[in-house]
């Protein structure tokens, strides 16, 4: 059987091909799955997609009509998938429920330290042989307060690094993490965390309840000299509200690896095009803002785990097994109809 994989990065392709060798053929495409590219999947029972694929009803219907029966998404997040429609169409959907939390946590800290110590500005200067220190003043992290919104596996890994810096630890989550408590984390309400933290880092999934978790009110509640880092999902932050606060000269730094309107932009080369996203364009003009292109997960360790889990999901499907990563099981449509 040939598996068709959409949105495959150049570094990811050899890992996918090697992992599927001896099991199934795989054809890797660098184009992302959208309504326009969905017809390419015709005749493929199994496809694999990236986190920026569009898996709404207008894409799922032509996939099902073309013979697709299983979608293996190569990410943990699945807010891009209409699971109800997938179930009605009889599509099996699986994701990667776990990969190295250190990849994202370490990158979140990379963003935090880069904006704190003005690394991008400094690197740009030294390339021009300008070795002045004006405007590069940063702050020690030791003794300051890190606020962690979401203390699951990634949030815990981020907290361990903060503890290593000697920071005070505040957490916000539905259920406290025992490991974070052992590190000295104090769980508080979101408002108190935002008001008391020098560094705020987001590590929660995107769902209706967390959309714009950091909105206008939350941004105003933060300290003027705080650092905000988002390496989770772009929709957690109201970007327009963030731009308004930045225009007031607020925040020591903002590090964003994700953006709420990143689909159609991130993972693509837009350097020769006019990008008509005014909010993103304005965001990029602030000297205290660093935007990267959803690369926090992108380590060889994490990508290998993602690929291995994807192969396992496909093998479970072909063997008729329901693995732990399945979001919509085979036969969901039939069971729904029967009930």
TrEMBL record:
Entry-linked InterPro entries: D-isomer_2_OHA_DH_cat_dom, D-isomer_DH_CS, D-isomer_DH_CS1, D-isomer_DH_NAD-bd, D-LDH-like, NAD(P)-bd_dom_sf
EC number: 1.1.1.28
Listed GO MF terms: D-lactate dehydrogenase (NAD+) activity
Signal sequence extent: none
Keywords (A to Z) from UniProt: NAD, Oxidoreductase
Keyword Cell cycle in record: no
Classification via CDD domains: LDH_like_2
Coiled coil: none
Residues annotated as domain D-isomer specific 2-hydroxyacid dehydrogenase NAD-binding: 110-296
A Pfam family that the UniProt record links to this protein: 2-Hacid_dh
Gene3D superfamilies: NAD(P)-binding Rossmann-like Domain
Primary enzyme class: oxidoreductase
SUPFAM superfamilies: Formate/glycerate dehydrogenase catalytic domain-like, NAD(P)-binding Rossmann-fold domains
Domain D-isomer specific 2-hydroxyacid dehydrogenase catalytic: 8-327
Recorded family membership: Belongs to the D-isomer specific 2-hydroxyacid dehydrogenase family.
Official protein name in the record: 2-hydroxyacid dehydrogenase
Organism annotation: Streptomyces albidochromogenes
């Amino acid at each position: 059987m040939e598996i068709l994989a959409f949105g495959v990065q150049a570094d990811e392709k050899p890992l996918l091909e090697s992992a599927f060798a001896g099991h199934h053929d795989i054809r890797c495409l660098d184009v992302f799955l959208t309504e326009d590219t969905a017809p390419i999947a015709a005749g493929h029972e199994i496809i694999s997609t990236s986190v920026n694929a569009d898996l709404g009803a207008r894409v799922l219907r032509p996939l099902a009509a073309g013979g697709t029966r299983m979608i293996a998404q190569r990410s943990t997040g699945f807010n891009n998938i209409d699971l109800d429609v997938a179930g009605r169409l009889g599509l099996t959907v699986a994701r990667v429920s776990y990969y190295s939390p250190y990849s994202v946590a370490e990158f979140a800290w990379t963003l935090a330290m880069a904006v704190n110590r003005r690394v991008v500005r400094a690197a740009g200067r030294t390339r021009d042989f300008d070795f002045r220190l004006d405007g590069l003043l940063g702050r020690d992290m030791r003794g300051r307060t890190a606020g962690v919104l979401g203390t699951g596996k990634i949030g815990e890994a981020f907290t361990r690094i903060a503890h290593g810096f000697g920071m005070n630890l505040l957490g916000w989550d539905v259920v406290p993490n025992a490991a974070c408590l052992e590190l000295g984390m104090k769980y508080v309400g979101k408002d108190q965390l935002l008001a008391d933290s020098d560094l705020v880092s987001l590590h929660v999934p995107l769902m209706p309840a967390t959309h714009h978790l950091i909105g206008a009110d939350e941004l105003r509640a933060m300290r003027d000299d705080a650092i905000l880092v988002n390496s989770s999902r772009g929709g957690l932050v109201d970007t327009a509200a963030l731009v308004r606060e930045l225009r007031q000269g607020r925040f020591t730094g903002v590090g964003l690896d994700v953006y709420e309107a990143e689909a159609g932009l991130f993972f693509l080369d837009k350097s020769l095009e006019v990008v008509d996203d005014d909010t993103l364009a304005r965001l990029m003009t602030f000297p205290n803002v660093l935007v990267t292109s959803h690369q926090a997960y992108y380590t060889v360790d994490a990508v290998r785990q993602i690929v291995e889990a994807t192969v396992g999901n496909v093998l479970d499907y072909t063997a008729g097994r329901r693995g732990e990563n399945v979001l919509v099981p085979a036969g969901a449509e039939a069971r729904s109809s029967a009930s």
